[in-house]
Amino acid sequence: MNTLTRWNPVRELEEFQNRILSAFRPVSARSGQGNGHGMELAEWSPLVNISEDDKEYRITAELPEVNIKDVKVTLENGVLTIAGERRMEKETKEQKYHLLERSHGTFSRSFSLPGDADPSKVNAEFKDGLLIVNVAKSEAAKPKQIEVRVGG
């Protein structure tokens, strides 16, 4: 028996677009154990918050399960870069993975600093899986209070 299938050009275009885009996604594949299905691990990039107050800029990056030895913070030509690696747990003979959703691998995040940032006054602190980078504002950029006298 022959059946007619209604042609949907929009669905076909969406499927084509998804195939093309998936070819450019940064994905590292890992073959599954025993079931014949491959498991894919997407590369990751740490989440970051950027804030400022009158004195400094603060960049806070979430780096769970990243060893501080695997993190590098650099500042060059007004660009702050946080780079590093989250290593994958080693599979043992007693333990087999059935699903891997937690990504691992190298990462790099770069941020252009505003012109009022002072590159000579940068400090970084790593605590409880958070990397906090403080970049002081230059003295010229800090607000100044000017006394106003009343003329008499």
Describe this structure in words.
By secondary structure, this protein is mostly beta strands. Helix content is 11%, strand content 41%. It is built from 1 helix and 9 strands; from the N terminus they run αβββββββββ. It has one helix at 9-24, and strands spanning 27-31, 38-42, 48-52, 56-62, 71-76, 79-86, 105-112, 117-127, 130-137. The strands form 3 sheets. It has a 4-stranded antiparallel β-sheet with strand order 3-4-9-8, with no helix packed on it. It has a 3-stranded antiparallel β-sheet with strand order 5-6-7, with no helix packed on it. A hairpin with a 2-residue loop joins β5 (71-76) and β6. The longest helix has 16 residues, at 9-24. The relative contact order is 0.19.
